[in-house]
Amino acid sequence: MEKFIEYENCNICPRNCNINRYKSVGYCKMPAQLYASRASIHMWEEPPISGENGSGTVFFTGCNLKCIYCQNYEIALGSYGEEINSEKLADIYLNLQKNNVHNINLVTPSHYIPTIRKSLIIAKKMGLNIPVVYNTSSYDNVDSLKTLRGLVDIYLADFKYFNDDISKKYSNAKDYVEVAKSAIKEMYNQVGINQFDENEMMKSGVIVRHLMLPDHLEDSKKIVKYLYSEYKDNIYLSLMNQFTPVRKVKYENLNKKISIKDYDKLIDYAISLGVENAFIQEGDTVDESFIPSFNLSGIKDNKILKSND
Asked: Taking the domain 32-306, which CATH number applies?
């Protein structure tokens, strides 16, 4: 069994549970041992991430944020996944690379950083030579992110809220805004201005996603304004309209899809600020589900499926 001192008094993420995850579980609901639920070729990321060949995604079990509206709730709650060690995880990366994916995409990795760090070191020694994407809610400790310098090439980061009352209400994280600001700043400090190869695939840099929530246009505007004022076009924004209610929650506004009219207003606002480097979604994506099947494919076996399989 692998052992990292960080798991013995776990403060890897901003929850700062300070518990021994070899004996118990923290807010993430996961022990020290890493669990994953799927490794596959994902076609639904931003164009310079998915490209034509897809992104080699590894979906980790558990989550340190647990948004009430989570679209991947069956794995975020920690109830589904297969235990794997860092050597096995490195093998999964290399298996994905053999399938000609553009990158390795680590989805919801924040509570497993020590094991992931070790797996990346192993994989790179064994021939991993494609970009590594850290796909996160941005509820990350800066000190933990610093241990990934030189191992992660692309940060695919969320900025979910700009109001602590909203973050407390939906994610039980009253400090989300300042945590996310600090985390994204560290990400940018590590990888800098976005770099692309000759095929317009991303080699390094930061994309910050914002999933617009129903009836929260003004909060979304504040996020766009902050990110543009802080980083200009040195990072890419990804403004998403794909919010999909997957189970009924106590807040009625979250039991519906977003207003396309509000989404269009957000895009117009971004343009009025001068934003040029941004990804937007077509109107009908609000009617689609971007949730893969968490069936242990690529984790329990070596079979690599695409996102819609």
From this structure: 3.20.20.70
